[in-house]
Design brief:
Number of helices: 14
Shape: elongated
Oligomer: single chain
Structural class: alpha/beta
Mean pLDDT: 94
Radius of gyration: 21 Å
Strand order of the largest sheet: 22-23-1-24
């Protein structure tokens, strides 16, 4: 099993280019199920989660041409097995995103209950309730969601809580429904908007994406299209936090700062110098950051996917920070690993009180989920002595060549077995 060994103490400098967004690519790959014509995607990140989704779609009968390094052509003209089996779904919660498109296009779907990072319950009841409101018959047997509908019907559905994958699943299903569907209390994340842009390019009629009310007028069929995946805002935020922690002067290219306004505001509050440009961000940092409090919440607030990385940063801050997690009930597992590096952190309910220390020291640590992996990489960059991070397969699920990109900026990281 691969590990990362990091020698801390090196400032970062240079330019790094952000890959396509994992959390946009996964639902958009599933959108190819909605049409018998080819969907051509570019800026596709080369990640384990993306490869898993492609394997899942291929097992259903989708043909794929991925001869270009960051692009793929998807042909779902023959979907002969509308099943997402446990063997593939267990490693990646986003597999649930096949449910809505399969049901809308094929009239039936059988999808295993999802797995993924162990960061909380993350129930799929909103997906099921929404499809039932659209006229589907849904039952749960032997760990599988079984859904059937001759054709879905437009409806008004109000989410009990904001859910990104739930919004994406129902939005995709509604594109082929009979009538108009209104999704209320919908997720506003940029990845939802990117999916909507792709669906509109395929002939869908969607308004309101990016607001809490999305309206979809169903059509008889969708057609092929080309779409470029948006840049990964969480990868962008991770490079911002890494430079802020390690110090240096880095330009993050090929990104959109608007999708990270809440993170940038908090980094500036912590004393980090950040300049925004049209498609790039420059971050400069020296010395210890200042303490800053963070409370995660749905977009446009501070994202839960940046909570762990920010905690690594303020573990060396001058002062005490309070980080409150409101999205997932079990997303503080990186705390005990940061403590192994010398961080002074106490968890009180869903909040972590982080008393900044002058130095972290290298140690052997273990990644517990995707963003915790990035948190430990950032902590390793500033720790005295070597830090060894085990179970980095979590990292490979969501970051494309992260250690190579950081090494190009001056970090000392090597992958070992």
């Amino acid at each position: 099993m691969d590990k990362l060994v990091i020698e801390g103490g090196c400032a970062l400098a240079g330019e790094v280019r952000v890959s396509g967004a994992k959390n946009a690519a996964l639902p958009i790959l599933c959108a190819a199920l909605l049409t018998p014509e080819p969907l051509v995607l570019s800026n596709l990140p080369r990640l384990n989660d993306v490869r898993t989704m492609q394997s899942l779609l291929g097992q259903m009968g989708m043909r794929q041409d991925g001869s270009a390094p960051d692009a793929v052509s998807l042909d779902a003209s023959r979907i002969d097995w509308p099943l997402a089996p446990y063997e593939l779904v267990k490693t990646m919660r986003a597999s649930i995103l096949a449910l809505g498109p399969l049901l809308a296009r094929c009239g039936e779907a059988r999808v295993s209950l999802p797995g993924g990072c162990a960061i909380g319950l993350r129930p799929v009841d909103q997906h099921v309730k929404g499809l039932q409101a659209m006229g589907a018959e849904v039952d749960l047997t032997h760990g599988y969601i079984n859904a059937r509908a001759a054709r879905l019907k437009g409806t008004r559905f109000v989410f009990d809580l904001v859910t990104v994958t739930g919004t994406e699943n129902l939005m995709m299903a509604a594109t082929l429904a009979d009538g108009v569907t209104s999704l209320e209390n919908a997720a506003r994340e940029p990845e939802v908007v990117d999916l909507a842009h792709c669906l509109v390019a395929m002939g869908a009629r969607i308004t309101g994406a990016g607001s809490d009310r999305i309206v979809i007028e169903g059509v008889e069929r969708l057609h092929g299209a080309s779409h470029a995946i948006m840049p990964d805002r969480i990868e962008t935020g991770t490079f911002l936090a890494a430079t802020a922690a390690a110090g240096g002067d880095v330009v993050i290219a090929g990104t959109d700062w608007h999708s990270l306004a809440a993170v940038i505001d908090k980094l500036r509050e912590a004393g980090i110098d950040i300049a925004t440009m049209d498609t790039a961000i420059r971050v400069r940092s020296s010395g210890r950051p200042r303490a800053a409090n963070v409370r995660t919440a749905p977009f446009p607030a501070f994202p839960t996917d940046m909570q762990a990385q920010f905690m690594a940063l303020v573990s060396r801050a001058a002062g005490t920070s309070v980080i409150t997690e409101t999205i997932f009930e079990n997303r503080m597992m990186h705390v005990q690993e940061l403590r192994r590096l010398g961080a002074d952190i106490e968890v009180e309910g869903n909040s972590a009180v982080v008393r900044g220390v002058e130095r972290l020291t290298g140690a052997n640590v273990m990644a517990t989920d995707l963003r915790a992996s990035a948190c430990l990489v950032i902590a390793g960059l500033v720790a005295d002595g070597p830090t060894t991070i085990d179970r980095i397969y979590h990292l490979d699920r969501g970051y494309e060549r992260l250690e190579d990109k950081l090494c190009a900026l001056g970090a000392r990281i090597r992958r070992v077995q």
